[in-house]
Amino acid sequence: MQYAAVDAYCLIHILEVFKAKSVTEGNSVESAMGLQLSQLDLGLKQIFDTQQNSNKMCGIKFGEALEMVQAIPPDFCKTVPISDEEVTALPPDQANRMDYVLSQIVRKYGDKILLSESDRKPKISRKKAKKSSGRVANTRSPTEGGEEWQGPPPWDATSGGNGCPKFLCDVMVEGLAKHLRCVGIDAAVPYSKKPESRDLIEQACKEKRVLLTRDAKLLRHDYLLKNQIYRVKSLLKNDQLVEVIETFQLEISEDQLMSRCTKCNGKFIQKPLTTEEAVEAAKGFQVIPNCLFNKNLEFWQCMDCKQLYWEGTQYRNAVQKFVDVCKLNE
């Protein structure tokens, strides 16, 4: 609406420019007493070419546009003779006043558009309707079959598990997988980048994991088990981590922090490497900064992807972050 108001204001001045050019090109506009209805639909060129038409014609034809910006202070609407010189932008002080005035107009006329009931319903194309007409829709609500956790989890000892929590995070909560690894929890990701729903569930069953997702559609599959999937409700990764810890009653200690490879979910070697051993292990694979050689640090290597880690500033900051997030100090 603000843009439209500026449009109307500018068009009035554009008209003045056209009028001035018409005068300089020799087709001056003369005054006329009357106005014929047949002339109302004339174009701008025809208006100025017809000598009996005048400012009165233009005033009537463009009167409504002028009313749209009638709230603008008089000094904005002064009729200034326009020459062939280049038209420049408004000075900053006038531009600021223009912004204020236009905002007042928007406040006065900016009523919300109310949608009718038919507008609220999503429209389905004929192609989609035809495609879906041949099969029976699953009418089970998302809350049935998995939105609220129904244990025990697959890793539970009573279910034949080893008691170690294991999760599978789909692409919608991939960042949560790294956070879980940072607090020492086994968190895998799908084998492929764009897995099918069935593939996710089969991987979770095979590896005895709970599938974590934010996709409500996954909960509607009939072949899901009640303790196979959990829909994460939080949006932020830190909040998601706390939600999973509380839902599954996971025990997190400071000793567990940064004990898994955040890159691949693998475990670290049991014995740390010296600087010399780390340099040898990193050849052709990873570059160790020279500034670490004289600091007598211990290096840890992932047994799966061979990534090297050391207890530097980033490590200490990460540990403190998850101490705070998991409220381990309390």
From TrEMBL:
Compositionally biased tracts (Basic residues): 123-133
InterPro entries per UniProt: Exonuclease_MUT-7-like (IPR052408), Mut7-C_RNAse_dom (IPR002782)
Signal sequence bounds: none
Coiled-coil portions: none
Entry superkingdom: Eukaryota
Bilayer-crossing regions: none
Residue segments, region Disordered: 120-156
Pfam (any one): Mut7-C
Residue span(s) of domain Mut7-C RNAse: 165-321
Protein name per UniProt: 3-5 exonuclease
Organism: Solanum tuberosum
